[in-house]
Description:
By secondary structure, the protein is α+β, with helices and mostly antiparallel strands.
Amino acid sequence: MLRKLLIYSVLCIGFVHQCTALACYNCSSHTLPGDCGDTFRLQANNKTYIHEECESCVKIYTKATKLYERKCKPKRPDGFNFTVGCKYDNERITCHCHDNLCNVAARDFMSFAHLCVSCVILLFSSLSK
């Protein structure tokens, strides 16, 4: 019974999350060095640098140039490609998140939805023992 409830909860959260569009900041520290760099000063009420209808928000830091780029990963017409977290390589750090305007963060981030799903899984796994 609890397993079925857990499975349905995760599927429901995933479906709702897939159907909702995100808004993401769309800027670069190259063009806005004082507002879109390591120190982020753009405001959510300034719609000039916000892109709607995103699948996920992306933040990229290029080590060689020390530039930040924040952008929207557009929704795909053929389905949903779920990516979250950060990838590190020698040249840059690329992070994906799934909350509105979440690519403002200066740290690695986990969306609130992912945190909730993790808590539900832990709760039900401890109850089923």
